[in-house]
Amino acid sequence: MSRLVLASFGGGTRSVYVGSVLYSLAKQYQVTDIDLAFFASSSYISAGYFFAGQYETMKESWLTETPTPKLFNILNYFKNRPIIDLDYLIDYILRQAKPILAERLKDIPAEIFCSLTNLRTGQVQLHSNKDPEFDYWKLLRATITLPGYTSPGGSMYLGDECMDGVIVDFREVLARLQPGDKLVVIKSQPHQLQTLPLIRVFRIFYKENYITLPRHLTIGNFYKDLLEESRQAYEEIKKNYPVLEIAPATKIISAWDTRLSRFRRIWSFAEKQLASAEWQKKITDFLNHD
After folding, report:
1. Which of 105-109, 225-229, 286-290 has the highest mean pLDDT?
2. Quick one: DSSP state of residue 78?
3. Does the pLDDT value for residue 152 go beyond 70?
4. pTM attached to this predicted model
């Protein structure tokens, strides 16, 4: 039986685009029965809302609560404080103001994977909502943690110090695909498998007490290899499976932009993109593909 599989990149506040795409898929095309999904970084926020069936709450969260300077302040770096306030994002916005009903994710049919980087080994690892120890909130905090931006080090998950999973590892996606599967890929910028700005982040913030990898294996070099292998796996997927890739035509937002006007513009852009005649045909043909 054919399965619908989803893979979504993150990218800081660019994930407002991911949220709008998921919202449009659910509301315009009634695409809600996804069997297998892969998320990285901030896209896991929208994953929580989407798979809990909270489409309107997801929209309200991105457009009324998340765009605030309380989340991101570059001046905090000089005050020895986190530039990105994850406590405000998770504990107030996502658990109180517009709460994600995370307990629902344990009982849904879909299996949802989220990627983390293990700071001890340097390996990208996947965690599923089907794991007995699954904890959405701890997993979310870990996958959006960036040492030097959000905290001095990583976040603990299942006994390991972890940080942002950065990208969708298409090697893992390929390993789990079955004959007849169809894959939807959501990118928050057009060339997300060709460049990796996070490498530059660690050239700025890399310190021994942040990353416990051997000195000859920096995070930057490790991700360069992973990026290439993941790109090769994605090309193989496209040769053998139907793939619907949804992405903006140009870079639409900085990863740290929290202006309300920008969020509204991007949300509206994604809604109009998927409502256009061109995309109606693309999506309909993809969903009807045998």
Report:
1. 105-109
2. G
3. no
4. 0.88
| CA–CA gap between residue 220 and residue 197 (Å, rounded) | 10
Assign residue 72 a region (left: φ > 0; alpha: ψ between -120 and 50; beta: otherwise).
beta
The fraction of the chain above a pLDDT of 90, given in percent, is: 53
Using a pLDDT cut of 70, give the percent of the chain over it.
83
Interval 27-58: pLDDT, tens: 999 999 999 999 999 999 999 999 999 999 99
Radius of gyration of the chain (CA): 18
What are 83-123's pLDDT values in tens digits? 788 899 999 999 999 999 999 999 999 999 999 888 777 77
Helices (H), the chain: 15-29, 43-51, 55-60, 86-87, 136-143, 170-176, 198-205, 219-240, 260-275, 277-287
Whether 264 contacts 272, CB under 8 Å: no
Which helix (H) or strand (E) segment holds residue 185: the answer is strand 182-186
Measure CA of the first residue to CA of the last residue in the chain; give whole Å. 10
d(C-alpha 228, C-alpha 81), whole Å: 34
CATH superfamily of 4-287: Cytosolic phospholipase A2 catalytic domain (3.40.1090.10)
Residues 210 and 155: beta-carbon distance below 8 Å: no
Other C-beta atoms closer than 10 Å to the C-beta of 71 total 19
How far apart are the C-alpha atoms of 206 and 198, rounded to whole Å?
A: 11
Other beta carbons less than 10 A from residue 137's beta carbon: 14
Residues 6+ apart with CB under 8 A from 85: 70, 71, 72, 73
- Each residue of 169-178: b (16+ CB within 10 Å) or e? bbbbbbeebe
